[in-house]
Structure formats: structure tokens, C-alpha cells
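Is this the right way to post C-alpha cells for a design question? Let me know if I should format differently. Anyway, here goes:
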């Protein structure tokens, strides 16, 4: 990563350094120069990322002469919401997606992955000569590779990939109005750079989104880590884990509310906050029973690592991408069925209502101390570290590993799940993530129920615990944490 506009720093990570750029609103005056001739940005799509990025870009570039327009497909139900957020046909900031694409110098493709796979050729056909193609996900690259195709020649291809959901990208950017640098970290990639300005443009886009720090990756590495993470620790594994734990605690005699607290509430609340504020090893100490934590960790790490490796292989060879496209073809415009139908989710509202009461802060109804349950903590941390170790073995950079496996979870998704619940999050995320969660969540659930939980009575594996405590990821996470503003995560 290099820049003629922004200051590139070296961040110490295990085994060396990585290039990063710190964000902040004090850098906004540099954006026009860094965009190198981009006078109009077209954002195609108005999903969570499309909305957040269009609004952040518009606000950051206000008064600079660089315009932001939103392009939607004909008949899009999102048009009215875009109008309510200040985009309008009358001033040219809202229009047909192909018309917006044709008039933009930087075209950011934020429509759904399957729709982009089906319609990218139409978009490419209308681009201005030399217009920059912008992505926030590498799914399209994987699809093009599967087809033996490529991005059109002569066009820069860059990516800015926020490490959090669209709502977090917008809400933390708004926090930045009072806490400079508040936002969601982002990775950037330059896939094609015919005019030599790719890094500057990608950095300008990332800074304009409010990223506290930006790190470099490749488009290929991004979609591998992103899609695997969605199916593992970010969504799929979490859903499978809380379903398994809820049943386990109920069979063990816990009432429904206590079982929900010890499973879902523990992960999305105290476990996530502990990792965010103190690091991953602190969860072990906070569990109150390190021996039981170690036994749970030892029982879950192996099966979790096997599943993460399997997912990675299927992403890498295109199987997972094809499954998304095939599912979209089957579903067409039909809504997906919701997954929050198991009995545990009927107790979500009751548990949320207990927050701040003695039942939540003093202890559970069965007498156990509230907070970080050691079984729940051991299984969750084992899964998180399994993803960390698999990504490291596959050669990902440390910034990418800790952002995709830890920071995105504890600073974006889990707080959102805590506010609403895990099932709600799954049923309201992107189609690609939702399809992956529905496919892999049950696999994780079965692994926990059939392999990990039945072996809690076995002694902990000292080698696994030493590998956890000595893992270089903790050093990398601590380095990344120093770049984050101290803010409460807005959900």
C-alpha cells in the first residue's frame, strides 16, 4: 500500500510490520486530491451497505465538488427510502442504475452478490472510458474466475471492504462527529491499476467512510476471509452454538430464561465486551472456572477447526459461491423463510427486559453467577481461535485475520445481536451471509452437540490451551486495538 496523499504508517504485527493508514475527519479536506479526477461517484444499490456508504460519502465530500449519486434498478422498493435520506431524481443524485453508472467516474457496486453476478456485464457495458470500478466484496471476482472471465480492461478495479455491517458503518460514522476517528475498520485492495492512482482512490473512499484504520489486502484474500467468516464465527457458528448450548442447558435442568442467558446473552453481552475491551485471554479468567473453560475449549477446537477448513476449501474452489447463485435462482423474488422458529427465541424479549435488574446482575435463577459462563465461553473462544488459526495457516495478513475473526464480531455484529438477538441478525443480513448461515449453522450445531459437549468430562488438552494462550493473534489484536477510538458501539 502506498499513497501520495495520505500518511502510510507501519504497524507492528507478529513476525514483522503491516502498512496502515489512520482515518479521521481531519483528513476529509484531502479527499478530492486523493480521488485524482473523480468528480462523480455512483453507488449502485441501497441495501445496508449501499445506504451507509452513500450517506457517509455524501457527508464527507460535502462542499468539495465531488458528487454522490445512488443508482437503483427500475421499480426498486428502496427508491422512497433513498429519497427520504435526501437523494432525488430532480438534482441527479438518484436514478436508474445504468444511467448512474454511465455518468460516474467511480462506480461502487453494492447490489446483492447474486444480482451482481447476473447483471455485471450490463453495468460494464455502459462505463465511461477509464472509470474506476469499486467493490466492497470480492464475490464478483470469484464468480468471474469461475466463468473464465475478468474485469474489463482499461478500468481501475479497487475495493474498500468495511469490517462490519452497514448499520454499524453508518452509526459509528455518525459518532465520529463528536469522537474523531470513530467508525468501522476497512480493508482495501487494488486489483487493477492502469492509471496508477488506485491506492489513493481506495484510501480516499475508506477515509470518507470513517474507517479508523485501513489495511491492505487482495481482492481474492478478502472474499475468502469474508465469506468464510460469515459462515463461521461471525454468523453461522454463532447461531449453531447458541442453539446447541440452549438445548444443552435445558437438558441439564436450567429454565428457559436461564438457558438463554447462559448461551445467547453471555456471548453477545459480557463475552463480546470482554474481548473488545481486554482481549481474548481475558474471557478465560472472567469465566470463573478456568478448568471447565479449558475442557470446553479443548473439546470444541478440533471440530470447529475442521469445519472452518471445510468452508474455506469450498469458498476457494467456488462451491460456496455457486451454492449462493443457485439458491438465488431457486428463490427468485420469494422471501426466505425465517430461522428464528426454535423455542429459545420466544424468550428473547423476556431476557432483554431483565437487563439492569437483579436477575441479570446478581445471578441466574438456578443460583449460578451471571455473566461469562465457562462452557459457553470455552466453546465460543475455541471457534474464534479455530478461524484465526485457519486464516493464519492460509497466509492471510494479521490485520485481516483479527478484523475478520475478532473485531468485526465484537465491535459490530455481536452488539447488534445483543440489541435484537442472533436469529434476528441472521434473518436481516445480506442474502449471501444468510444463505451461508442456513447452510453451515446446523453443521456447527451438530458438531457442538455430537462432539464437543459430550466430551466436557475429559481433561483439557495442555497443548491446545498453551497454543491458545501463546497465540500471536493476541499481539496482533492488541496492536489493532490501539488504533480504535474509545467509543461505545452504537446499535
Amino acid at each position: 500500500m502506498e499513497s501520495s496523499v495520505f500518511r502510510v504508517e507501519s504497524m507492528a504485527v507478529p513476525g514483522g510490520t503491516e502498512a496502515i493508514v489512520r482515518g479521521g475527519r481531519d483528513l476529509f479536506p484531502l479527499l478530492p486530491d486523493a480521488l485524482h479526477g473523480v468528480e462523480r461517484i455512483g453507488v449502485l444499490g441501497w441495501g445496508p451497505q449501499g445506504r451507509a456508504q452513500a450517506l457517509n460519502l455524501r457527508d464527507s465530500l460535502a462542499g468539495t465538488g465531488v458528487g454522490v449519486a445512488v443508482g437503483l434498478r427500475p421499480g426498486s422498493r428502496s427508491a422512497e427510502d433513498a429519497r427520504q435520506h435526501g437523494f432525488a431524481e430532480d438534482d441527479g443524485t438518484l436514478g436508474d442504475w445504468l444511467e448512474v453508472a454511465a455518468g460516474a467516474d467511480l462506480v461502487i457496486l453494492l447490489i446483492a452478490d447474486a444480482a451482481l453476478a447476473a447483471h455485471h456485464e450490463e453495468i460494464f457495458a455502459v462505463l465511461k472510458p477509464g472509470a474506476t470500478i469499486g467493490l466492497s466484496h470480492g464475490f464478483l471476482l470469484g464468480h468471474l474466475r469461475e466463468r473464465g472471465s475478468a474485469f474489463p480492461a482499461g478500468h481501475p478495479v479497487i475495493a474498500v471492504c468495511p469490517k462490519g455491517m452497514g448499520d454499524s458503518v453508518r452509526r459509528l460514522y455518525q459518532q465520529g462527529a463528536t469522537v474523531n476517528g470513530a467508525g468501522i475498520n476497512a480493508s482495501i485492495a487494488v486489483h487493477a491499476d492502469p492509471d496508477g492512482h488506485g491506492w489513493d482512490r481506495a484510501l480516499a473512499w475508506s477515509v470518507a467512510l470513517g474507517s479508523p484504520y485501513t489495511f491492505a489486502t487482495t481482492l481474492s484474500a478478502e472474499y475468502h476471509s469474508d465469506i468464510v467468516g460469515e459462515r463461521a464465527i461471525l454468523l453461522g457458528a454463532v447461531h449453531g452454538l447458541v442453539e446447541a448450548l440452549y438445548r444443552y442447558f435445558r437438558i441439564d435442568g436450567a429454565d428457559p430464561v436461564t438457558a438463554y442467558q447462559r448461551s445467547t446473552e453471555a456471548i453477545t453481552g459480557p463475552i463480546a465486551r470482554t474481548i473488545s475491551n481486554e482481549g481474548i485471554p481475558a474471557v478465560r479468567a472472567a469465566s470463573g472456572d478456568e478448568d471447565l473453560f479449558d475442557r470446553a475449549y479443548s473439546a470444541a477446537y478440533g471440530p470447529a477447526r475442521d469445519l472452518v477448513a471445510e468452508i474455506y476449501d469450498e469458498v476457494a474452489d467456488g462451491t460456496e459461491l455457486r451454492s449462493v447463485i443457485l439458491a438465488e435462482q431457486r428463490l427468485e423474488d420469494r422471501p426466505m423463510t425465517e430461522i428464528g422458529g426454535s423455542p429459545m427465541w420466544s424468550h428473547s424479549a423476556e431476557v432483554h427486559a431483565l437487563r439492569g435488574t437483579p436477575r441479570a446482575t446478581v445471578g441466574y435463577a438456578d443460583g449460578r453467577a451471571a455473566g461469562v459462563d465457562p462452557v459457553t465461553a470455552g466453546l465460543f473462544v475455541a471457534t474464534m481461535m479455530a478461524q484465526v488459526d485457519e486464516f493464519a495457516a492460509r497466509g492471510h495478513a494479521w490485520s485481516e485475520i483479527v478484523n475478520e475473526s475478532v473485531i468485526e464480531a465484537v465491535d459490530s455484529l455481536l452488539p447488534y445481536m445483543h440489541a435484537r438477538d442472533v436469529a434476528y441478525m441472521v434473518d436481516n443480513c445480506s442474502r449471501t451471509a444468510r444463505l451461508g448461515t442456513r447452510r453451515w449453522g446446523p453443521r456447527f450445531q451438530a458438531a457442538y452437540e455430537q462432539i464437543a459437549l459430550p466430551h466436557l468430562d475429559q481433561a483439557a488438552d495442555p497443548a491446545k490451551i498453551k497454543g491458545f494462550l501463546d497465540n500471536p493473534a493476541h499481539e496482533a489484536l492488541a496492536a489493532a486495538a490501539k488504533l480504535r477510538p474509545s467509543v461505545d458501539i452504537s446499535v
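Format looks fine. Someone answered above. Worth noting: The domain at 228-481 is CATH 1.10.1040.10 (N-(1-d-carboxylethyl)-l-norvaline Dehydrogenase; domain 2). The chain has two domains: 9-216, 228-481.
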